[in-house]
DNA sequence: TTGACAAGTGACCTGTCGTTCGCTATAATG
DNA sequence: CATTATAGCGAACGACAGGTCACTTGTCAA
């Protein structure tokens, strides 16, 4: 049962840190949300900062498990429409999954205070996405779906606007639907622009 | 007397809030940086939150003065190379101007805690940029520089990646030069992709 | 000269924070 | 059965936060 509480504390810490920030969160409220008193926390963590470090450790592990190995990378689509479909699937998950949202918010608001958060932010918000889509666009060029071009540049040009819309959803969740349809519009605009000649029509 | 104490407090608040966040900043340190003791602050502001509100007020005024009226909008470039030049000029300012950097950081880390910060973040990071470049791209299409396309979509596709690189600079200032050359590369890639037919070389 | 006022000071108040400690209940271990 | 470890509790501590207040100083108008 001990490990259970420890995990529950981390879950609640992610929730409160991502809403109110590390400094804006206090142990009493955090533990009260779990039906505990604050002193009980110290049976599982040495300090508030210890919770923070454990939380970042967990995030790093999760990210490595999901995106670390080449096996977990999404397959290269066989059609241009397949790219749109894959994009919308990923966007839907990333915009609506509570845990992912809170992780993104946490990295956003703590990136200037903590070194590891800063590095994770760059990976989550930029390099991770461009790396993934560089690989995908290389594959689609080889399949003759996209015109020959710098795949890294295309990956950046594709993922940055989508990432911006995802951040917009974090900020204004009531615009979810609007943002999702904007992502689809952008994705279609993109494939129209970069489709190989024999694909156009 | 160049600047009165009230303004100096706001300047220092912007500096410390943008580094440590609102909750992570305390009045004693803030006023000590100005050679005052904390109680002196209360001659100029009612409370810590009052400083925060005044700071946001000032930011809103500044933004309205700079980008509010149509007169202050940048002119539509006469050549494709002119677009690159204008982009690089704006990027250089926005990446190196301390006040702008701190404003951006502040909005980034406080956007989930304060309603007005949230709205300003969306304006600074998205709608303000797309509005401006929608107008510019419309003009460039009318001049026959860019191919006919949805100017708003182009503005979004252009500004979002540049904005992402600017945020990267806030996070990792040591990569300034790298990011700036990436912005130029992206800008040239963009004009190559969207140039009107009779402009291509 | 004097009175009013703005601006700065240091002592102090109150509340809250993170943290510690001694205690208890439970359950597993020998 | 006695022992020991675990995980919870409540009271208390020291540090520090934001904020108040009586007081001083300097400026300037009447």
Task: Characterize the structure shown.
The structure is a homodimer of 201-residue chains. Chain A is mainly alpha-helical and 201 residues long. Helix content of chain A is 75%, strand content 0%. Chain A has 9 helices and no strands. The first copy, chain A, is elongated, with a radius of gyration of 20 Å. The N and C termini of chain A lie far apart (61 Å). The mean pLDDT of chain A is 95. Chain A binds chain B through residues 18-21, 23-24, 105, 108-113, 118, 121-122, 125-126, 150, 153, 156-157, 160-161, 163-164, 167-168, 170-172, 182, 185-186, 189-190, 193-194, and chain B through 18-21, 23-24, 105, 108-113, 118, 121-122, 125-126, 150, 153, 156-157, 160-161, 163-164, 167-168, 170-172, 182, 185-186, 189-190, 193-194. Chain A binds a DNA duplex (30 and 30 nucleotides) through residues 1-2, 5, 26-28, 36-40, 42-44, 47-48.
Which short descriptors sum up this protein?
homodimer, 201 residues, mainly alpha, 0% strand, DNA-binding
- Compute the CA-based radius of gyration of chain A: 20 Å
Oligomer: homodimer
Order of helices and strands of chain A: HHHHHHHHH
Structural class, judged by helices and strands of chain A? mainly alpha
Uncertain segments of chain A are none
Helix content of chain A: over 70%
Strand content of chain A: under 5%
Separation of the first and last Cα atoms of chain A: 61 Å
What is the mean pLDDT of chain A? 95
User: How many separate helices of chain A?
Assistant: 9
What does the largest sheet of chain A look like? none
Number of strands of chain A: 0
The gross shape of chain A turns out to be: elongated
What pair of chains forms the biggest interface? A-B, 38 and 38 residues
